[in-house]
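pls design
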C-alpha cells in the first residue's frame, strides 16, 4: 500500500484474487495487467492510484469491489468484461432484450 516506486503491475496466472486495498495509494502505477485467473478485485484495491491510465482485463473477472478505482483521476472510462456480475455491493443487471 502506498509504494511510489511501482509503475507497472502484471499479475501472474497463479493469482485469483486482488485483496482489499492491495495497491491503494500507489500513485506511480500507470498500467495494470490482470492474470488469466483473476476473478475478483477487492474493495479499494486500486483506490487513489492517481497515475493509473490503463487496465488490461481478462475474460474471467466476475467481481469488482466497492470503490476499487475511486480517486484514479487519470483513468479514463473503461469497459469491463461481460463476465463481471458484481460491482461493489450490487449485482449487475443485464438487459438482454
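designed seq:
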Amino acid at each position: 500500500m502506498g509504494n511510489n516506486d511501482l509503475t507497472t503491475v502484471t499479475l501472474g496466472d497463479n493469482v485469483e484474487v486482488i485483496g482489499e486495498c492491495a495497491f491503494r495509494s500507489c500513485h506511480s502505477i500507470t498500467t495494470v495487467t490482470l492474470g488469466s485467473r483473476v476473478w475478483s478485485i477487492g474493495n479499494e484495491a486500486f483506490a487513489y492510484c492517481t497515475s493509473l491510465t490503463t487496465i488490461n482485463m481478462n475474460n474471467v473477472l466476475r467481481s469488482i469491489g466497492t470503490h476499487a478505482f475511486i480517486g484514479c483521476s487519470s483513468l479514463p472510462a473503461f469497459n469491463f468484461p461481460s463476465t463481471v456480475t458484481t460491482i461493489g455491493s450490487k449485482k449487475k443487471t443485464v438487459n438482454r432484450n
